[in-house]
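Bug report (template v2)

What were you trying to do?
Predict the complex of my protein with zinc ion.

What happened?
Run completed; filing so the output is reviewed.

Input:
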Amino acid sequence: MEKKQVPAIGIDLGGTKILAGLVSSSRLLGEPMRVPTPKGPDNIIQTLLDIVEKFQKETLVLGVGVSTAGVVEPKSGEIIGSTGNLPGWTGTKLKHIIQDKTALRTVVENDANSAAYGECHASGLSHKTCVIMVTLGTGIGGGIILNGRLYRGAHFAGGEIGHIKISMENKRLCTCDRWDCWEAYGSGRGLLSTGWDLLQGLSEDKSVLVAKKDSLTTNDIIDAAKAGDMIAKKAMQLYHQHVAFGMVSLCQTLDPDCFVMSGGMSKFVDLKLLKELVQDWTIPVISENLEIYPACLGEAAGLIGAAQLVLDAVHDVEEVGAAG
Ligand SMILES: [Zn+2]
C-alpha cells in the first residue's frame, strides 16, 4: 500500500514552455516548476534530464511521465509524427534516453492523450466505458479513454478528432491541408473564420465587428456577443453548432458516457446549449444519458496524465506479479 503513495514525475513538454511536477493519485503535489523550452532536440533532452535529476535529489519517485506534442509509439516512446512546435523532435527515442540515464521507469505519451487520461482519472471517470476529452483551442485535440485506458488506435493516432470531416463544401482549408475538418470550424480559428464569413458585405452600422474586420480576434467576437451585437451572437450560435457537429460523429461512433471539454475556447462554450444540440442530432439510445463536463485540471492536465500513466504502469506490473 505504501508504495502506491510514492509519486511520479510528470513533465509536459510544450512548444514554448516545459511544466513539471510531482504527481500522486492524479493530483499535483505543490506548484509545478516551469522553464522555457530550449531550441533543438539535444537541448530539450538535457533540460528534461536536469528536471528529473532535480526531483530525484529531493524525493523518492516511482517513474517519469512525459507528455509531448506529436504521435508517440508507446512501447519505444519514440516520437513518430510531425511536431510543428518542436522542430527536429520527430525520431527522438525519448523513453529509452530517459530510462537509460535515470534508471527510472518512463512513459512518453502524446500531449492530448496525456491530458485526457489525467482529466478522466482526476474526475473519477476511470470506471466509465467511454470518456472522450475534447480540447477546443486554436485547433481541436482530443483523447479517448475506454474502461479507464487510453485508446491509441492501430497507428497511435486515435483521438486526432480535430480532423473529422464535417462538410463537403471545400470551404475551409485545415492545418492538415485537407478541407473542412472539424477544427477549421470548431476551434478558435474556426470561430474567427465564421466571424469573417458573416461580416462579408456588411456596413458598419450592422455590427461593431465590421470596423475591426482586418484585425478581428476571437475575443472581439466573444466580447461583442456578450454585449448583444447580433452578428457576434450569430457567430457564437454557429460556433456551438460547429462544435456539436464533431461531437455527434463521435457519439454515433463510440457511444460515450460523457465528454470532458477543455482548452481555452471551452470557457466560452455554453455546455447546456451544447448538450442540447448534440442530443438533438444523436439517436436517443445514445443521447438520453449523455453528460458533458468541464475539465478540472487546467494547464497541468498533461503532466498529471503522463505521471499517472507511469504510476498505473508500475501498479499493473505489481498486480500481474502478485497474481503470478
Ligand atoms: Zn484537418
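What did the reviewer find?
Residues 163, 174, 176, 178, 181 surround zinc ion (CB under 6 Å). The chain has ten helices and twelve strands.
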